[in-house]
UniProtKB/TrEMBL annotation:
Chief localisation class: membrane
Superkingdom of source: Bacteria
InterPro entries per UniProt: BphY/WalK/GraS-like, HAMP_dom, HATPase_C_sf, HATPase_dom, His_kinase_dom, HisK_dim/P_dom, HisK_dim/P_sf, Sig_transdc_His_kin-like_C
Signal sequence, renumbered to the chain: 1-21
Protein name: Sensor-like histidine kinase SenX3
Species name: Streptomyces varsoviensis
Presence of keyword DNA-binding: no
Length: 472
């Protein structure tokens, strides 16, 4: 932007200088030529009047030759060449060269009007003057004698060229000097813009108390005031949102914590009742089993809420260990009796530094999600992949179901998101995939969901093999 402002300023300066120089040149040129023309006409008229008494009337060719010769001698400083003609006789000292005295000028002279014109002869400028010789007190009687003179304008042209050269020499320093105010003007314009950019960058980095110093009353000052107002409103809104978010997280954590104790007691009681449900009448037994099931769901939801609260509070910690991936995944499937329902293709000898408990939760949530909402066959595979930043472990869990609705796909890791709003209840808490994503992030990895070309959904977990993850 600085370069554009400087160039624009210099262009305006150059255009102004060129315009001024052009106007000055035109006026000076016209003034020089007009002065030359007026002087030449007056001098020629004076010389003609001085020589005229010696010319007999009507003059013959010899008298006209003497007359023009004397005029040439008298006009030596002007370097003119004169011709004379009396009425319809041939001009003296000879024929006027073609194209040097126009018919229009000769017609004016015959009518008793003095005239002049500028012509170009072989690239050089010349001045042609035509004078009718008149008699009488007011010069109203034409004598029939016509005098023509042509004189070079080389000196005047040289003066004009000197003006052009002087204008050029003066324009270059002026153009160079114009760079200084151009830089100063660009600096004055760009300084508020740079400050605005720095302030915007600080706002982006979270320094919401950033403000601009406002000076003056121009458009840039008004922009600074607008920015300060926006920053103040943004700081206030962000503070309110953070307060509300903190309150919501604290509420969820407090509620979950307070529910754990009564839920533990309820679970113990329902477990006892569930053991005797077979001895009760059918309706009472069904009610007991329903209470036991719902109490278990509530307990799992509370545990998930507690886990999410720890993530939000930054209190989730990694306990890393060097483990065999094939063995760790196998234990997850075995602990939940999924060996017969899930096909595993896991390489041998792949070890990674991970938190076994959290990876167990990741695999269990993804496999459980595939079993509940997908369709057979459910398959889990693992492989390593070299990349520029090191070697990575990729774990894929796929199913043969109908896949995930494209509109739902971007939201599958959102908390409490339901693909079907009409499905009010499900076995899960709605937090399983969100907890999965948080656990993977703790390992500096990523997890993504997609649909396979052949049908079904696939979840891919990517973990760095040799990194330690974030210690929360």
């Amino acid at each position: 932007m600085r370069a554009r402002l400087v160039v624009a300023f210099l262009l305006v300066a150059a255009l102004s200088a060129l315009t001024t120089a052009a106007l000055t040149f035109r006026e000076a040129r016209n003034a020089i030529l007009k002065r030359t023309q007026d002087t030449a006409v007056q001098t020629l008229r004076s010389r003609v009047n001085a020589q005229l008494p010696d010319v007999p009337f009507p003059p013959d060719q010899t008298a006209l030759a003497t007359f023009t010769h004397d005029l040439d001698q008298a006009g030596e400083p002007q370097r003119w060449i004169t011709y004379a003609r009396y009425e319809s006789q041939p001009p003296v000292p000879g024929a006027i060269p073609d194209g040097q005295v126009s018919r229009e000028l000769q017609e004016k002279v015959r009518k008793g009007v003095s005239a002049f014109q500028r012509i170009d002869v072989r690239g050089e400028p010349w001045l042609v003057i035509g004078l009718p010789v008149t008699f009488g007190d007011n010069g109203s009687e034409r004598s029939g004698l016509e005098v023509y003179a042509r004189m070079p304008l080389r000196g005047e042209e040289a003066n004009v060229q000197a003006l052009v050269l002087a204008a050029q020499r003066g324009a270059l320093p002026a153009f160079a000097i114009a760079i200084v105010p151009a830089l100063l003007a660009a600096r004055g314009v760009l300084r508020p813009v740079r400050e605005l950019r720095r302030a915007t960058q600080k706002i982006t980095e979270g320094e919401l108390d950033t403000r601009l110093k406002v000076t003056g009353g121009d458009e840039l000052a008004e922009l600074s005031r607008t920015f300060n107002g926006m920053a103040a409103a943004l700081e206030e809104n962000i503070a309110e949102l953070r307060r509300m978010e903190a309150n919501a997280r604290r509420f969820a954590a407090d509620v979950s914590h307070e529910l754990r104790t009564p839920l533990a007691a309820m679970t113990a009681v329902t477990d006892v009742l569930d053991e005797d449900a077979g001895d009760l009448d059918p309706d009472t037994g069904h009610a007991v089993r329903l209470i036991t099931e719902e109490t278990g769901k509530l307990a799992r939801m509370v545990e998930d809420l507690m886990e999410v609260s720890r993530f939000d509070a930054g209190a989730a910690a990694l306990h890393l260990d060097e483990v065999d991936i094939r063995e760790a995944v196998g234990k997850t499937l075995q602990a939940r009796a999924w060996e017969g329902r899930v096909t595993a293709d896991l390489p041998e000898g792949v070890r990674a530094r991970i938190d076994p408990r959290r990876i167990d939760v990741v695999v269990a949530n993804l496999v459980g999600n595939a079993l509940r909402h997908g369709g057979p066959p459910v398959r889990i595979t693992a492989r390593t992949e070299p990349r520029e930043d090191g070697e990575w472990l990729l774990i894929e869990i796929s199913d043969g179901g109908g896949g995930i609705d494209p509109e739902v796909l971007p939201h599958v890791f959102d908390r409490f998101y339901k693909a079907d709003a009409a499905r009010a209840r499900s076995e899960g808490s709605g937090l399983g995939l969100a907890i999965t994503m948080e656990n993977v992030r703790l390992h500096d990895g990523t997890v993504r969901a997609a649909n396979r070309p052949g049908g079904g959904a696939v979840f891919t977990v990517e973990l760095p093999l040799r990194r330690g993850g974030r210690q929360a």
